[in-house]
């Protein structure tokens, strides 16, 4: 009988710790912000300056609104951003209403339609 009591206390402590962990995880995810890229204009040729006065955190979401018949969004690396090229294996978004969470560090996005990236349809975002 004594062992059952001790086991129950251990289970109750474990349950309490798991519940606390779930609460902490939920608190962390509620802090994420959602940013509309380009604000009212959307994902466009002026996007390269859109992020200048904003602060971003890991887990924040960028929303890219655009006409999918003439634009797309591609998550690229630093070289792809600098050279306006799509590296092999890059993630291409083309729904016209893409929600993309930011990773910690640098995040790079371009439009891969010829001439669009070089025309300013690219952004580099640092997420802390």
TrEMBL record:
| Domain annotation Phytocyanin: ranges | 33-128
* InterPro entries noted in UniProt: BlueCu_1_BS (IPR028871), Cupredoxin (IPR008972), Phytocyanin-like (IPR039391), Phytocyanin_dom (IPR003245), Plantacyanin (IPR041844)
Residue ranges annotated as transmembrane are: none
Judging by the UniProt lineage, the source's domain of life is Eukaryota
Which GO MF terms are attached to this record? Answer: electron transfer activity; metal ion binding
Q: Does the keyword Disulfide bond apply?
A: yes
Signal peptide positions on this chain? 1-32
Q: Which UniProt keywords apply?
A: Copper, Disulfide bond, Metal-binding, Signal
Q: What cellular component terms from Gene Ontology apply here?
A: plasma membrane
Q: Cross-referenced SUPFAM superfamilies, in alphabetical order?
A: Cupredoxins
Q: What is this protein called?
A: Plantacyanin
The organism named in the record is Rhynchospora pubera
